[in-house]
Amino acid sequence: YGIRPESVIIYGQSIGTVPSVDLASRYESAAVILHSPLTSGMRVAFPDTKKTYCFDAFPNIDKISKVTSPVLLIHGTEDEVIDFSHGLALYERCQHPVEPLWVEGAGHNDVELYGQYLERLKQFVAHELVNL
């Protein structure tokens, strides 16, 4: 479409973080924002899973280290669908993480209702990306 990679911010939420991480692991972009991300499908279904199986169609944990763009992670600490530990694990594997937003007390479907959500997004897009 003729859009320069530095003009694109890839944003994924929940299961939408899977195509976002896949895309960002293969192409440059200005940044990646992962909202309530999962490490892998198997790790959501079976929390004690320690490795990625070939049939796991959602292997964010294996692809996140290939993302070269700045990555902002946002996750509620009381997420009842995708445990907060998923956000932490992905953050630890990022090449270029920025200050994450861990929303204290937020669940899976209400992070954006907290004031710090919009504030963090504005800060990241308007100020941090400009200076990276």
Question: Could you walk me through the main structural features you see in this protein, from its secondary elements to its overall organization?
Answer:
β3 (71-76), α4 and β4 form a beta-alpha-beta unit. The protein is built from five helices and four strands. It starts with 8 loop residues before the first strand and ends with a helix. It has 132 residues and is an alpha/beta fold. The protein has helices at 17-26, 41-45, 60-63, 84-93, 115-131, and strands at residues 9-13, 31-35, 71-76, 101-103. Strands 1-2-3-4 form a four-stranded parallel sheet, with helices on both faces. The protein is 35% helix and 14% strand. The radius of gyration is 14 Å and the shape is globular.
Topology:
Layout: E1 9-13, H1 17-26, E2 31-35, H2 41-45, H3 60-63, E3 71-76, H4 84-93, E4 101-103, H5 115-131
Distance between the termini: 25 Å
Q: How much β-strand is present in the residues?
A: 5-15%
Unreliable segments of 5+ consecutive residues: none
Structure summary, number of beta strands = 4
